[in-house]
Amino acid sequence: MTGNDIRRKYLDFMAKNGHAVIPSAALVPENDPTTLFTGSGMQPLVPYLMGEMHPMGTRLSNSQKCFRAEDIEEVGDNRHTTFFEMLGNWSLGNYFKAEQIPWIYSFLVDEVGLDPEKIYVTAFQGDESANIPRDTESVALWQQLFTAQGVSCGVGEMGSEASGGERGMKEGERIFYYDGAKNWWSRAGKPEKMPVGEIGGPDTEMFYDFGTPHDEKFGNHCHPNCDCGRFLEIGNSVFMEYLKTETGFEKLPKQNVDFGGGLERIAAAANGDADVFKIDLLQVVIAQIEILSGKKYTDNVEAFRVVTDHIRGAVFMIGDGILPGNTEQGYFVRRLLRRAVRYADILGIPAGELKNLAESVIINYEMHYTNLGEKRTDITEAIETEETQFRKTLENGLKQFNKISLQIHMQTKEIDGKRVLDREHAEAVKAISAQNAFDLFTTYGFPIELTEEIAAEKGLVVDRAGFEKLMDEHREKSRAGAEHKFKGGLADHSDKVVQYHTTTHLMLAALRNILGDHVHQAGSNITGERLRYDFTHPEKVERETLDKVEAWVNHAIKTGGTVTIETMSKGAAEKDPAIEGSFWERYPEEVKVYVVAGNNGTVFSKELCGGPHVSTLEEIKGTFKIQKEESSSAGVRRIKAILTE
What we know:
Layout: H1 3-16, E1 20-21, H2 46-49, E2 59-67, E3 83-91, H3 97-111, E4 119-124, H4 136-148, E5 154-159, H5 161-167, E6 173-178, H6 180-183, E7 184-186, E8 199-209, E9 231-245, E10 248-262, H7 263-271, H8 280-293, H9 301-319, H10 328-347, H11 354-365, H12 370-374, H13 376-411, E11 413-415, E12 418-420, E13 431-432, H14 434-444, H15 448-457, E14 461-462, H16 464-478, E15 489-490, H17 495-515, E16 521-526, E17 531-536, H18 543-559, E18 561-569, H19 570-575, E19 590-598, E20 603-608, E21 623-633, E22 636-644
Parallel strand pairs: 1-2, 4-6, 5-6, 13-14, 15-16
Antiparallel strand pairs: 2-3, 3-10, 4-8, 7-8, 8-9, 9-10, 11-12, 16-17, 17-22, 18-19, 19-20, 21-22
């Protein structure tokens, strides 16, 4: 069964069970400065899980594009990828455990065809100190499902991951209780770490048993949460039941479900092979690498996996408008592509072929992710340009690295596998200096991770701490005039920040009404104390005009009214002249348009956005006041404003 088959079957299955199929959010989360990437299926749904109404209803499902930068260095084993898809379904106060668990079991067994004898599950053991009971309901539901198919379903008490390794699984056991470190979900972690006001709940996880021999370096005995490779987690249903209060935990009035299942991992289970790189979505790239390199995947698994994963990740990020660069998200696209070049060279892939590997990714995914096909030329050209630019510096950089390495080897000797001064100083490993690493970065474009990788190949280490100190100093110098650039998005989703966010919509509408339709958003930064907003305009805005903008916004607020959401295709939104939008490339194919209208029927603003917003204008407390207007950059002005009490 192909990955595309599984995705289609899942979305069709959930639609048949009353779920609205929503599009994947972009890889760059909107209005969330706490993270660079969308790293899970539920991340874009957090506002709705916290109580905001979703325009598509209370049963939702999708396949979400995800990227985890922290996994870059992990790529090379049989299960880690930086980019992945998370199949997800959510109940926003609609259904709960009795529906969710049988649905997911039916999907995995009846739709995908997994052998129930190879499925193992876990549940929350409870927390006496927090007065939270064990999740016996989930366990009972699993027992009913397994019993109906004649599958053993004994229950085991594991506790922690470590104690699970000591105890092991007993004959006939298939369902296991674990502690809050394993089977409890909240954004803060296990129950005792949750702050007041946070929501969370128990989860039940599904694992597939590939039957591989246990590696005792991971514990005396194997169990579902063991990292030896025998078991692979393929899905997790979170039951958001509880609110943390000053006095403990209370049941939520509306209880939610959040399911996430890794598409690649489910496909690996369907294949009966724990190597996720053997699924068809990745094998098409691996097959092309075998042709280009003349080498076999089985003989060069690490290099094949790195090139395959990194090209796929870069394709999806560039498809979402993230180009290679030296900062924020762009840095990770650059890092992926430069690592791909390095490992492509190790495999002997001819220079300039990365763009053709990217084409293999696009062909495999464009039926579902249509933006990849639409941006095919942009993607392949960006990859080709980055490879060409990096190759220009790579040769000179490697020459410089080799000079540094030679100097170190001349000054040291190898003792116990390390380059050291002498045995007396055996722990004083001679490292590539912070300054050398910094020069390789600034002059030759070597990311520190690349320097570390090449150093490791030569038995050397890098003074990472010293490098980071030099980088901090470099950043501080670069911030001269940093007031003219600021981090975008919302500081958080507190009430005041949400008020300011809706106010920016009114302010933009006022600016366009008074200055003209050439005005568009160029950036924003909103906290609970003020808003900063960049907009396109060629000249200074005089105070008299700013006063008119203030009056327009305050009139709209005082008129009262509502903020509603219209969901439509991005194409339709782009064609509607009444809808204001910026950064169109960051949005999915289905978008939300926030409409701010007065009680008298006047529409003040229609703007593409991702929320959150107030529901009524009466929630905006205070009088809008523009404190300052100044230049941000050529053709861009900045306003700083507050809501005064």
